[in-house]
Amino acid sequence: MRIDYIDFFSRVIPEWMARSNQKSQEVGFGSDTYWLWVVTTIGEICKQYNDDSLVTEQFGLLFNWLEKQAG
Fold it and tell me: Does the residue 7 lie in any domain?
């Protein structure tokens, strides 16, 4: 599978971040519902990209950043 990294970084990541912000406002950033959504959606997107290492590492960075924000 050839991956369009430009599309991934310019569309997929920003769209996911926007949905993440919306979800955190809906259910609360610290809620189990939010974190389940985070893990589920990250997993789904990574699978769409056949768990490509750059994709999974990027989402790993985002997940770690979110955890730090949560305190």
Answer: no
